[in-house]
Amino acid sequence: MSDIKFFITSEIMDNEVVLFMKGTPVFPQCGFSSQVVQILSYLGVSFKGVNVLDNDELREGVKAFSNWPTIPQLYVKGVFLGGCDIIREMFEEDELRQFFKDNGIDMINV
Questions:
Q1: What residue numbers does the annotated binding site for [2Fe-2S] cluster cover?
Q2: Structural contact between residues 12 and 75, judged by C-beta atoms closer than 8 angstroms
Q3: What is the pLDDT of residue 108?
Q4: Model's pTM, two decimal places?
Q5: Exposed e or buried b for every residue in 55-79, given b needs 16+ CB within 10 A?
Q6: Which residue ranges are tagged as binding site?
Q7: d(Cα 1, Cα 8) in Å, to the nearest integer?
Q8: pLDDT per residue rounded down to tens, the chain (110 residues)
Q9: What separation in angstroms does the CA of 24 have from each of 33, 76, 104?
């Protein structure tokens, strides 16, 4: 297993909710990453943000890992949930809150 694949696997297995994003949760560096951070923050979900802009190998590696061409990418309990459009749609349909509940993810704002 390559170092980057090992790193990605470790992040998604060691953290219940991981967002591979451009920038950080405090300072997102793209609108799509910012939208997902806002949604997670609104729901009160604790998550780990991983800045793919820090490392070209990571940015390309996470796309290959998930077989998904864009960033951000949200993983919940080791499973790829989706990118910005999917997360936003799930949030707007009130499916995201239920998904987190069903998977035992704590939310402050429920």
A1: 30
A2: yes
A3: 83
A4: 0.95
A5: eeebbebbbebbeeeebbbbbbeee
A6: 30
A7: 11
A8: 589 999 999 999 999 999 999 999 999 999 999 999 999 999 999 999 999 999 999 999 999 999 999 999 999 999 999 999 999 999 999 999 999 999 999 898 65
A9: 9, 18, 25
Q: Round to the nearest angstrom and report the end-to-end CA distance of the chain.
A: 39
β partners of residue 23: 28
- Cis omega before residue 69 (within 30°)? no
Rounded Cα distance between 28 and 38, Å, is 10
As a whole number of angstroms, the distance between CA 61 and CA 65 comes to 6
Q: Which domains does the chain have, with CATH numbers?
A: 3-102 (3.40.30.10)
